[in-house]
Specification:
It contains 19 helices and six strands. With about 450 residues, it is of the alpha+beta class. The strands form two sheets. A four-stranded mixed β-sheet has the order 4-3-5-6. It starts with a helix and ends in a 17-residue tail after the last helix.
């Protein structure tokens, strides 16, 4: 009879060693740390991070705040740093959510608190990612459809697993930690396009640090919290089609190698990225005058249309979840970058006018290899002079597992993020350290830390 899920994951977390991680997974983890810390620095001046920092007003502590001069206790540092990392919605994507924006700030804060090595941090990420993926695979349905933000609900458990690994908790303690994380899972889609979406990531990171610390001190939780009929999986499931009986795959069938990470090229919701790739490719061949565009049509999955809820955005935050803005932005600016995600740009007359001429058609075809996606997205443009233009059929996204960014492309994004965040940290040494994190003997050797 297979070991129950919560207990089985506790055993996986406690038993995992660095040598167990497949070699192919290590570069994925390096990318997760690098991209997350880049976007964290870029987002550190954003209102969600700054308002949260002011409201919490944490005392000095053992962990660095926002790669600046300030410090805070590790739970608060994880909370603020993760909120900053998700503030621009420029962080990586996998497992129905944004794993690195939760895992990396929690691991970094707790690593500073206990003086962990880079190798231990890489191990913690592997434990957190695989725990997150284990839960995702057990529900056939998209949690977005029920209104859940997967980053918030799975992130609290994944971060608890990561911090349990970092603290080398026993199997029983690790099971308590992830059960504690389950009771702190939260985040609803109605708050997309507001400051509360990045707050979901921050709270999940905070929950992970607290859960592992409580478990280490002897705090208990249900040893069947994940699989119980009134447990996590049943509670959050959109349709109740959950698997609570199959053996734990974490540590045997590595999702880090199979699913990897999708690194964002654009600071908008990932659901816009296929269409953006298609539109920008089309524009390279045929530059368009926005005033001469009669209609833009985008065909994408129904899940994507549900998530992209803002059809007439007025702010940069709202625009992140708008296909209409993504298309208008690409046509008017010829790109979609951080400089376009401002309230002033979104409210420009030409942008507002063009958004009204964009329509989005939900496509109910399912791509069996990519749940939530269609086999292909398509962008078509009708011009007032009668011309009809169409993108290629877009079957994958640049930066995704099928088309990963090259190291220099990742560096270019990282360097740009540090410029936007006005970091006093030397970009190249930090990038190189993160891209070989497991070679770092002690977390304190990471450039830019305040403690």
């Amino acid at each position: 009879m297979p070991i129950a899920l919560t207990v089985g994951l506790g055993s996986f977390i406690a038993g995992l060693r660095y040598q167990d991680i497949p070699k192919d997974a290590i570069p994925v983890i390096h990318t997760g740390f690098t991209d997350c810390i880049g976007v964290m620095i870029a987002g550190r001046g954003e209102p969600p991070a700054q308002l949260l920092k002011a409201a919490l007003s944490p005392p000095p502590g053992e962990a660095t705040l926002l790669f600046g001069a300030g410090t805070a206790p590790a739970p608060e540092a994880a909370w603020i740093n993760a909120t900053a990392a998700h503030a621009l919605d420029f962080d990586d994507v996998a497992q129905r959510g944004h794993p690195s924006t939760v895992l990396v700030p929690a691991i970094l804060a707790e690593a500073e608190a206990i003086g962990a090595s880079g190798e231990a941090m890489v191990l913690a990420y592997a434990a957190g990612y695989e725990t997150w993926a284990e839960l995702v695979r057990r529900d056939a349905d998209a949690h977005h459809q029920k209104g859940w933000h997967p980053t918030g609900i799975f992130g609290a458990i994944g971060a608890a697993a990561a911090c349990a690994s970092l603290r080398r908790l026993s199997a029983a303690q690790a099971a308590h930690a992830i059960a504690l994380g389950a009771s702190q899972s939260a985040g609803i889609m109605a708050n997309f396009g507001t400051m509360t979406k990045p707050f979901h990531a921050g709270r999940a990171a905070h929950a992970g640090v607290i859960s592992a610390r409580l478990a280490a001190s002897g705090f208990t939780a249900a040893q069947d919290a994940l699989e119980h009929p009134q447990g996590f999986l049943a509670a959050v499931s959109p349709a109740g089609r959950i698997d609570v009986d199959s053996p734990v795959e974490a540590g045997r069938m590595w999702k880090l190698c199979k699913d990897r990470l999708s690194v964002k090229k654009y600071p908008l919701c990932f659901c816009t990225h296929r269409a953006l790739d298609g539109m920008l490719d089309l524009l390279k061949e045929s530059p368009l005058d926005s005033a001469r565009v009669e209609r833009v049509n985008v065909s994408t999955s129904r899940r994507n249309t549900t998530i992209l809820r803002n059809h007439r955005p007025q702010t940069g935050l709202e625009a992140k979840f708008s296909m209409e803005f993504a298309m208008a932005c690409a046509i008017v600016a010829g790109r979609a970058g951080l400089t376009e995600l401002t309230d002033d740009f979104v409210r420009r007359v030409d942008i507002q006018s063009l958004m009204q001429r964009v329509s989005v058609a939900p496509d109910d075809r399912e791509d069996p290899a990519a749940p939530g996606y269609t086999p292909d997205d398509l962008v078509t443009v009708a011009m007032k002079d009668g011309r009809r233009l169409a993108s290629r059929k877009i079957t994958s996204v640049r930066g995704g597992p099928q088309e990963p960014l090259a190291r220099e492309e990742l560096w270019a994004k990282f360097d740009d993020c540090l410029r936007v965040g006005a970091a006093g940290v030397p970009a190249r040494p930090l990038f190189d350290s993160l891209m070989s994190l497991d070679q770092l003997g002690h977390v304190s050797r990471l450039p830019g830390l305040a403690v």
